[in-house]
Design brief:
A six-stranded antiparallel beta sheet has the order 1-2-3-4-6-5. A hairpin with a 2-residue loop joins β5 and β6. The radius of gyration is 15 Å and the shape is globular. Helix content is 30%, strand content 30%. The two termini are 29 Å apart. With 125 residues, it is an alpha+beta fold. It has a single domain, classed as Yope Regulator, Chain: A (2-Layer Sandwich). The longest helix has 15 residues.
Amino acid sequence: MPKFTPAPESVVRIFDEAISAIPLIERRKMFGYPCAFVRGQMLCGVFADRIMLRLSEADKAEYLELPGAKTFEAMPGRPMREYVELTPKIMDSAPELSGWLQRGLAYIETLPPKEPKKSKPKSKK
C-alpha cells in the first residue's frame, strides 16, 4: 500500500465549503482523506492535494475536453472509471466547482442507494 501524503488545509477547506451547500451529504474518511457520500454512493473526495469527482459517462467526456482535465488515478496507471481529477482552475472557482458537483450529484441520484456494509461478527478462538 502506498504511503499517502496529508491533504493541504487549503484543499480540505475548498472541499468542505463546496459540499456544505449540498443536502444529504455524509462526510466520511477514506484512506485518511475526507470524502462525500449521498445515499451511500461516493460523490467526491480529497486525495493528497487533489479533489476527485464522480461523473456520468457523458459529463465525464465533456469534462475531459477542458484544458488540463484528466481521469483520476489514485495510483499511476490505475484510472478510476467514473472519476475525474478537478483542475486547479475549477477548484479555485466556487461557481464552477458547484456546477460540476451538481452534475455529479445528478448522476449519483440515478444510482440505487448503497446499503452500509454489515460488520462481520468476530470469531472466537
